[in-house]
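2 proteins. here.
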Amino acid sequence: MNTPDRQVLKIVGFLTFLVLALAFYFLLLGRIAVELIGSGKPAALAMGIGVLILPIVGLWVVATSIRAALSHQRLARRMHEEGLELDVSDLPRRPSGRIEKPAADALFEQVKQEWEADPDNWRTNYRAARAYDYAGDRSRARETMRRAVELEREERNPKA
């Protein structure tokens, strides 16, 4: 097995462990919430409801994060298959491995022009999201990646 496959397996294994640990934690919280609610005391009832909300919110966060990660992975795979990934191999890097800011900004300006020419294409949105990420603008990267996912979904499942 080559190194990238081994890395992917390690990451998937670690994420699986985290999800299972969270599930166990949510079950414990749920059990505590039921015991507090079952006590019949007003303060315990209020605390039990509050504690019950935590695993519900936690499950929602985990589910939406996993769904987003799978969507992003699907787009990354399609971009790779189509040969449209951003090539950042030549860009200068900091000792941390991050792309140097001026190089990331120049890459972003190039990709921004592509995106402005075709803003309703999921591929240009994906590339813009990656360029935002390299430039350090995480909030715009997430927003643009969400748009790329929506556009790609519409392309795969056109409305009749």
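next one coming up
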Amino acid sequence: MRSSRFAISKSGARDAGAISWLLAQTLWVGGLWLLHFLLLPAIAKTGLASLLVEEIGSSLRALLVGLAAVCAGLQVLVLIRAERLASVWRDMRGQLLSVVVAMAASYFVARLYWPGAELWSMFSYLVMAFCGLLLVLQPVPSGSSRKL
């Protein structure tokens, strides 16, 4: 028999959990960094009024923080599926994801109940971005390490 040359038939192909982990991570980590360090400075350079740029940034940040919370929640589920529940919180990935979810919650709580908390909102946003950067450096969870 001839062996197939397609990547789908390789024995080392990733499972659905690893693929969803990478996709969710790319969406939220890339989105946070792209908005703060590329898109908003580019919009500011176009000559728009500074209040308009701040309003665009505020709206887009809130959307991306919500996306980050949902994607981090998905990553927690993938991590729980790949590892035992008790060992997830001792793992660096689980700790980083719990910080991201906590910072997303604090971002929205501060935005809702503390209207003048721009510095806290920016702090929460940047902590999430740097936790995402550290999470990118961690290995992707695989279901093969799970003990049944």
